[in-house]
Specification:
- This protein is an alpha+beta fold and about 150 residues long.
- It has a single domain, classed as Aminopeptidase.
- Helix content is about 25%, strand content about 35%.
- The protein has three helices and seven strands; from the N terminus they run E-H-E-E-E-H-E-H-E-E.
- The strands form two sheets. Strands 1-2-3-4 form a four-stranded antiparallel sheet, with helices on both faces.
- A hairpin with a 2-residue loop joins strand 6 and strand 7.
- The longest helix has 18 residues.
- It starts with a strand and ends with a strand.
């Protein structure tokens, strides 16, 4: 699987990159998951944005959130793969690279995520452990997970 990895802060995103990110997030989180919520939550400006491109098409995306914005720990959020990317390993590659970039940017410390419950086993394969109770976020069951520092 060949792809191009780009990770950059909000202010360095091109208008085409920002458009592709917002389009993918809307396709996955609003349309596909039938979830009405405000995706633009004023956190993007503080984050690094990880994009995986193949043939100039955004295949997968995650935002890397510094400590103190969503949680006490750094976190990874808005993890999304395009429909074209599914079943091709982009999701696994994305999460691995998001963890690597999180450690590169913020050091080797715990990483927290708010995972959709049905993806709990997927994230556990990357060392994330469930903490707390299941909670509803925009009509979808979630659970907080943390990946301890290595």
């Amino acid at each position: 699987m060949e792809f191009t990895e780009i990770c950059k802060p909000f202010e360095s995103l091109t208008t085409k990159e920002l458009y592709a990110i917002l389009k993918l997030r809307s396709e996955v989180f609003v349309v596909e998951q039938n979830c009405v919520f405000l995706d633009t939550d004023d956190k993007d400006q503080s984050c690094q944005h990880l994009m995986l491109y193949q043939n100039k098409e955004l295949m997968a995306y995650a935002r890397i959130v510094p400590a103190g914005v969503s949680y006490r720990e750094p976190s990874i959020g808005r993890i999304a793969s395009s429909e074209l990317a599914r079943g091709k390993g982009f999701g696994k590659q994305l999460v691995k690279l998001a963890i690597d970039n999180c450690i590169r940017l913020y050091g080797n410390q715990p990483i927290r995520i708010g995972a959709q419950l049905y993806l709990k086993v997927f994230y556990a394969a990357f060392g994330f452990e469930s903490i707390g109770d299941i909670y509803d976020e925009d009509g979808i069951d979630h659970i907080e997970m943390i990946r301890p520092a290595n």
